[in-house]
Write a structure and sequence with these properties.
single chain; about 475 residues; 2 domains; 4-stranded mixed β-sheet; 4 strands; about 60% helix; about 5% strand; globular; disordered N terminus
């Protein structure tokens, strides 16, 4: 009778599933969030680099985009994603980048919910996925890292499943790391997660034979994965690049790399409080190795805000195998009625469900993005200021705001600095001290680089200094940018 009722329910649900419905619920609102999705200056230079690669049929090895570091070694680890971003933009405009970003996030969360349903009851899996969504959304930008979120969830879910079944991951998973390594440097986290789970397998092994088996299986997988990560245009340099980036001393000067400011609302606080409430009131008992992994993810999220999405997406996958049996046996289970209602939807979607979801997504995408997305002046797009510069025929090297570097590259103007990290600690620190007037280096820097005009944010402290600097005049100003000319 239960099977008959479930079959009837699935017929009424048109073959949809809970993960698919959740993915649609995430995807559709994001289509209308273009301002937030396109609110990062790095999107501009990602488009420019992708265009350069397509035009030259090669990946740059030195910098050709700035005037301050010409010929400096530059290896864009996101080269493959940048090709896709440039192609989408050039053929379909900003709306395509918004849709691709929304689709990547929705796909990652759909995959997360599907993976959690292996171990958790529907209500608990849904709660964990909603909390993950809270941590992903603050860093929702049209940039390469978003395109790798489905890859991250796929990789982590497969590794955790292998550990739950007390086996090494399949070598068929290894090519995923090659794809990941050419999309974004976050693949190094995937290798680190494999190493942590391999260590857990060794600790959990009951005897020498089991330890040798775990060492052989996981060691072989990690060795092949590292080899697969070297299959990029940059080889070993590409493998070392994420490590060099993570050890930069000036990361704290960049907003996305700062620690979360809990004087303001932070989704991470909601996640922590929800986790503590559930763990303390439910008496959760977790394997020490998984507790340590979760603490490591939490430490990373507290140190750098952009790592919060790793905690949200990977943390539940690590905990679900141990929590599932405990939550299922808990007496007086308050959400059992929700689980019964979602039991049928928790099963995988059918072909009709995928077709229906695709039709809904395509229809509403066309509706939301009809007419395209026009970008005028905004906090990262000083279009009016550049128009004034062109009108006055100002030429020569520019000293620009960090947030304007991407748009300058996009507009065909070589900036002094932009969002790429290859400039190095010494250069970035000097720049930060100059624009904040924490040093008296501005006149010396302007002379050293033969700067003929500046383009700085309206509220940048250096603007006031330039107003009083001999030999300089204010050429243009609005709420976004101020231009000074020599």
């Amino acid at each position: 009778m239960t099977d008959i009722a479930t079959s009837a329910y699935r017929r009424r649900s048109l073959g949809l599933s809970l993960p698919l419905i959740f993915g649609l619920a995430v995807y559709l609102p994001l289509l209308f969030a273009a301002r937030a999705v396109l609110g990062d200056p790095d999107t501009y230079w990602h488009i420019a680099i992708g265009r350069w690669i397509i035009a030259h049929w090669e990946v740059p090895r030195v910098d050709v985009f700035s005037f301050s570091m010409p010929g400096a070694p530059f290896t864009p680890p996101e080269w493959l994603a940048e090709i896709g971003i440039a192609w989408l933009y050039d053929r379909f405009g900003w709306g395509a980048l918004v849709a691709a970003t929304a689709l990547s996030v929705a796909a990652a969360l759909t995959m997360l919910l599907r993976a959690l349903l292996r171990n958790l009851m529907p209500a608990h899996a849904l709660i964990a996925t909603v909390l993950a969504t809270l941590l992903v959304l603050p860093h929702l930008l049209a940039r390469p890292h978003v395109l790798t979120l489905p890859v991250l969830v796929w990789w982590a879910a497969e590794l955790v499943a292998a550990r739950s079944e007390d086996r090494a991951p399949s070598l068929w998973l290894v090519p995923v790391i090659t794809l990941w390594a050419n999309l974004h440097s976050s693949y190094i986290f995937g290798l680190g997660l494999a190493a942590l789970l391999a260590g857990e397998a060794l600790v959990a092994a009951g005897d020498r034979r089991a330890r040798l088996g775990a060492l052989q299986g996981w060691g072989c997988f990690i060795l092949f994965s590292v080899g697969a990560a070297l299959i990029t245009p940059f080889g070993l340099d590409g493998l070392l690049l994420p490590i060099d980036l993570a050890t930069m001393s000036t990361l704290g000067l960049i907003t996305e790399w700062k620690s979360p400011n809990f004087q303001q609302f932070q989704p991470l606080e909601v996640w922590i409080m929800a986790f503590l409430l559930a763990a303390l009131s439910g008496g959760w008992r977790l394997p020490p190795t998984r507790v340590l992994m979760l603490l490591l993810l939490l430490h990373m999220a507290l140190r750098h805000g952009r790592y919060a999405e790793l905690l949200g997406l990977v943390g539940p996958l690590l905990l679900a195998p141990a929590l599932g049996p405990q939550l299922a046996k808990r007496p007086g289970h308050q959400v059992s009625f929700l689980d019964r209602g979602m039991a049928a939807l928790a099963r995988p979607a059918g072909p009709l469900g995928f077709a229906l979801a695709g039709a809904i997504a395509l229809g509403l995408s066309a509706l939301a993005l009809r007419g395209g997305i026009a970008r005028g002046g905004d906090a990262i797009t000083p279009a009016a200021a550049l128009a004034a510069v062109a009108e006055h025929h100002i030429e020569g090297p520019v000293f620009n705001d960090y947030a304007f570097g991407g748009y300058l590259i996009f507009a065909g103007i070589k900036p002094f600095i932009d969002g790429r990290y290859f400039y190095g600690d010494v250069f970035i620190k000097r720049y930060a001290e100059v624009v904040s007037v924490a040093s008296d280096e501005l006149p010396r820097l302007l002379a050293e680089y033969h700067i003929t005009w500046t383009l700085l944010g309206a509220k940048t402290p250096a603007v006031v200094l330039l107003d009083h600097l001999p030999g300089w005049r204010r050429l243009y100003a609005d709420d976004i940018a101020v231009v000074h000319a020599r």
